[in-house]
Specification:
The protein has five helices and no strands. By secondary structure, it is mainly α. The protein folds into four domains: 44 residues, no CATH class; 36 residues; 36 residues; 41 residues. The chain starts with a helix and ends with a helix.
């Protein structure tokens, strides 16, 4: 590996080698090793405790990292609950709920709350993003298309349900 360097460094090594040969022996090697171990011991005890290097939070100590993870967990959990409430339509309700009203009025209340929240969200988004008129037209068109698809699916379900009921009534009449 060092063979190419042998020729250029040969004169330097031939001058330095006789000077170092008498100085380097077993006692000097043990002394150098002892000195290095002593320096490691001294420098290791005077420095502050090593900072834990986590993947997500480098430079934080273990308690700080735990606090950061707990905060991240709380934030993720609240986002999950908000997402679930939006999907189920239960935001604004406290649990447990006692069903003292009819299902229709409860459904109407939920629908009104959802519309109100959607209106506020849309108004806030429009103010924040300053949507152009073309973007709003596109959004309205997409919503109408989705609504048409939803209405078609509901029509098919109602038709299927009526056919199933008619078949059941017809089979009961034969029996």
């Amino acid at each position: 590996m060092f063979e190419p360097l042998r020729a250029p460094l040969a004169p330097v090594v031939s001058v330095v080698k006789p000077l170092l040969k008498p100085l380097w022996n077993g006692n000097v090697a043990v002394g150098v090793i002892a000195f290095l171990l002593f320096m490691i011991f001294i420098r290791g005890s005077s420095s502050p405790p090593p900072v834990s290097h986590g993947v997500a939070y480098p430079g934080l100590t273990i308690p700080q990292r735990l606090a950061a993870y707990e905060e991240m967990w709380r934030r993720e959990e609240s986002e999950l609950w908000n997402w679930l409430e939006e999907r189920v339509g239960l935001d604004g309700l406290n649990f447990p709920v006692v069903d003292t009203t009819s299902h229709e009025s409860l459904a109407r209340q939920r629908e009104q709350r959802r519309r109100l929240r959607a209106g506020r969200d849309l108004a806030a988004r429009m103010n924040e993003e300053r949507m152009s008129e073309r973007e709003m037209d596109h959004a309205i068109r997409v919503v109408r298309e989705r609504l048409e698809v939803l209405e078609e699916v509901m029509r098919k379900r109602k038709l299927q349900r009526q056919q199933d009921e008619d078949e059941m009534a017809h089979s009961e009449l034969k029996a």
